[in-house]
Amino acid sequence: MRPNSPSNAGTSPAPVPEGLLVALGVPEPEERVYLRVLARPGRTTERIAAELTLGDESAAEALRLLAGRGLVRRQGVPPTWSAAAPDVAVEALLLRREEELCRTRGRIGELMRTYRRAQQPSAAGLVEMVTGRAAIADRWRSMQEGARHGVLLFDKAPHIMRADPGAELPLLARGVRMRVVYEASGVRAPGRLAELREFIEAGEEARMLPELPCKLAVVDDRWAMLPVSNGAELRAALFVRPSSLLDALTAMFEVYWHRALRIPDTDDPRRAAADHQRELLTLLSAGLTDDSIARHLGVSSRTVQRWVHEVMDVLGARTRFQAGIQAARAGLL
Questions:
Q1: Contact 214, 226 (CB under 8 A)
Q2: What's 252-304 look like in SS3?
Q3: At how many degrees (to 10) do helices 86-106 and 108-117 cross?
Q4: Fewest C-beta atoms under 10 Å: which of 99, 140, 252, 269?
Q5: How many angstroms separate the Cα of 258 from the Cα of each of 41, 97, 255, 316, 328?
Q6: CB 193 within 8 A of CB 296
Q7: What is the tens place of the pLDDT at every residue in 199-241?
């Protein structure tokens, strides 16, 4: 039985993560060699090759390349291998990869010029037609994944797909600001308001209007998607890049955003004492009848009517319409 080397006697090497260096441009075979040297320094090339079941030449080539990257170094007689400190060596690799990514990003303009030359001259590369529900959904997912700062949405039927928490919640978690104006008819759908609460509690800013002019999505002032529908069918969408048209769509969103009523966050501590009033006002603004509100809140229609009169008295309103205006001015919506 071969004795342990002094540096490893009586201990077992801690497990080391795999796949970290591949993202930094280090091929998997080289990474395996590096992780072996990192965990068990002081091995010769031949021993590393035997432990990893590699040929001596393959191990030697991998070690040579790793040394060129500054990840390992050879020392002593006979020569053995040890790893450079990862906080220095791997950080240097990371910085080089970031520089490469920055250079690549800088060439996106060059790629776009080539792309536009290949498109129809009338479109000038600024507006692209995307057809088919699957293609539209794929493009929307790509837009969401590429969002850096903000997303603006008009939520209006017909919908390409249901709101996906798996796509929106990660955006909110990484600090992307999402502002959504919902059309009231969509909010009235059974269970829809409860779904919206999840997004609002995660940070989405949500407002509502009786009607919206169109469906719309704007991402980072870089892209917009304007679905084109024919009645209940949605088979095409315009994909708009930076242009006066994109500026106009963004300005239109802002106009409707400032006209819309706020869908309140139930976790707002400043209004915790008026939860049922906020819920009631939201449902009234969505156009629900007393019976529908009663079913949604799990109370009787008579209770809803009593609450409506109480809210109107508190707000000094003579009609439900006035109550909605007063509630908006008071910040309750």
A1: yes
A2: HHHHHHHHCEECCCCCCHHHHHHHHHHHHHHHHHCCCCHHHHHHHHCCCHHHH
A3: 30
A4: 269
A5: 64, 43, 6, 24, 11
A6: yes
A7: 888 889 988 887 888 889 999 988 999 888 766 667 788 899 8
pLDDT in tens, 162-195: 566 777 888 888 889 999 998 877 776 777 777 8
193-196 long-range contacts, Cβ below 8 Å, gap at least 24? 193/282, 193/283, 193/286, 193/296, 195/163, 196/263
d(CA 88, CA 2): 34
Q: How many CB atoms lie within 10 A of CB 114?
A: 8
Whether pLDDT at 268 is above 50 = no
145 has pLDDT over 80: yes
Yes or no: say if 287 and 244 are a contact pair by the CB < 8 Å rule: no
Predicted structure pTM score: 0.50
The overall average pLDDT reported for the chain is: 78
Mark out the alpha helices in 24-132 (DSSP H runs): 28-39, 45-51, 56-68, 86-106, 108-117
Q: What pairs with residue 265 in β-bridges? A: none
3-state secondary structure of 111: helix
Contact at 8 Å (CB) between 229 and 318?
Answer: no
CA-CA distance, 60 to 74, in Å (whole number)? 11
More confident residue, 324 or 53: 53
